[in-house]
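User: Show me a protein chain along with its predicted structure.
Assistant: Here is one chain, sequence first, then structure tokens.
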Amino acid sequence: MGKDLIIVESPAKVKTIKKFLGNKYMVQASVGHIRDLPTREIGVDEAHDFAPHYEIIKGKEKVVRDLQDAASKADTVYLAPDPDREGEAIAWHIAEVIKNKAKNIKRIQFNEITSRAVKNALEHPHDINPNLFDAQQARRVLDRLVGYKISPLLWKNVKRGISAGRVQSVALRLIVEREEERQAFVPEEYWLFKAILEGSIPPPFKAELWKVEGKKPVVPNAETADALEKAMKGAPFTVSAIEEKERSRAPMPPFITSTLQQAANQRLSYPAKRTMNIAQRLYEGLELGDRGTTALITYMRTDSVRIADEAKKSAAEYIEQRFGKDYMAPGGKGRSFKGKTSAQDAHEAVRPVDITLTPQDVKEFLTPDQYRLYNLIWCRFVASQMAAATYHDTSVTLTCGPGLWKAKGERLLFPGFLAVMPRSADEEEAALPALHEGEVVTLQKLEKEQKFTQPAPRYTEASLVRELEERGIGRPSTYATIISTIEDREYVRLEDKHFVPTDLGKVVCSQLRDHFARLMDVGFTAEMENNLDKVADGELGWVDLMKSFTKD
């Protein structure tokens, strides 16, 4: 009786999985995709139901021979690429090249690379999901048709050698139109008033002008500002109302792909592509000294905030032991979060595989980038399963001449999840001193400041990912590729961490809007993503989708 063969995507996974299974299985890697559409021709037969012509990717010939040889020696071949549409496509292509060599081919999937998860997958093998493969195939053929039919127009009218992608072009449009909006923006002047005040008990505190004669203040110019200042000059600041209440702040859900990319960009200044590359290594496994090769996080391409009951239980036990019962989520059983109705919910949220492996425990084995990202993922997950933070909020209203002023302060009563994920200094509001109604406070300084309305900001990586997600453009596995593609093609550049369209990007966008309005329509692109989801769910045939796309 021969050994069974497990085929994964990455060589890094081979080592991790062999650690669990020992010599009972052969484990080999396909090193990503092994087949694709040809590079020098369209490779799609539109006349015959868009039949694709696949070929071995250049440089992968030896990988394919090795897989075929190993498959011929195995009783069963388990295809174990990543648990998403791209992984299903890789599994399908591997099955195609080994089907004449292998005796029995099965598909297995796992959301985390642990002994329990891998062995459970081996106990529950299944067939390749043709609907998931069709969804990926439809996306690939769509993108190939778009690229091959649009690129010649750009070569003729703009520059030879450049290209256009179906989803990337819409992302470029968002960036270009934001820039056009900024250039057309006409700023409007307004003035703000602030007062530094001090009561009978220090410290001094800040108040802002809230209303004038019962209405929101409209101070459009210096003359109006001077007149208002004159009307209040010399008038006492009197405390007219004090409102105090207790407020709670619940933690955020654990990361999904888009929120991980946004947080890593905002907190760590990592581009989306860099974030996903680091996360891939944390998912596949790293050498952790005596522990050997160990996977640190669950699968990082997901749109679901769902958490396994087992993970919630482990988190609750860890939080109780580390922080005490008061820091546990209500009921002591962990929190559940509601995701978007559009979420595919195929996988759990991104979380640490083993919550007891703290970032500090593994820091010496990780690169600085790996440590920072693991720390971000670990802290966000632990915080998501903790008690809310509670605050004592104070809002004070003061009168001065025709104006009403507001001062706000807060005092942290119980940190809850903030013990793991504290707020930044600029998010905190200082506590107000003890004041009482009717008290006249001392004006230390009255400030008036000229301001101008600002246009909508340029997109950062974080805000672009958020915009793509909210508009339904692309899916978790595509955000990083979308962004890196428009950068690599030099359609946009980063300036102070914000995207600015290049002259080339503006011209390309203009040409595409003029000649391919339907393709460049955000709503159309989002609907196409929904249709690809229907293909994945078996509700729509991929050929039917292709026909509807090309009929007009």
